Amino acid sequence: MFSGHLFWGIAAEYFAVKTPSFLQEFLIFIYSSARLVQMFKNVVK
Q1: 20 to 30 Å CA-CA from 34: which of 15, 23, 43, 45?
Q2: What is the rounded average pLDDT of the residues 26-39?
Q3: How far apart are CA 22 and CA 14, in angstroms?
Q4: What is the DSSP annotation of the chain?
Q5: Is the pTM of this model over 0.85?
Q6: CA 34 from chain center: how many Å?
Q7: Are 35 and 27 in contact (CB under 8 A)?
């Protein structure tokens, strides 16, 4: 940001703040999907 690239500095700060919440939502979706598949496999057996 201090090297004269104000836009890129602001964009990097924005994504640094937003990325953890996005990853958390994505991982919760993956976990719940995997859990559903596991439960379905147990029912089919």
Answers
A1: 15
A2: 89
A3: 12
A4: -TTS-HHHHHHHHHHHHHHHHHHHHHHHHHHHHHHHHHHHHHHH-
A5: no
A6: 16
A7: no
| Residue matched to tokens 């147990």 | 42
Handedness of CA 14, 19, 20, 26 (dihedral sign): positive
Q: Residue with structure tokens 């201090």?
A: 2
> What pLDDT was estimated at residue 3?
64
Task: Give the contacts of 1 (CB within 8 A, at least 6 positions apart).
Answer: 8, 9, 10, 12, 13
Q: How far apart are CA 23 and CA 16, in angstroms?
A: 11
- Going from the C-alpha of 18 to that of each of 1, 4, 6, 33, 40, the distances in angstroms are 18, 23, 18, 23, 34
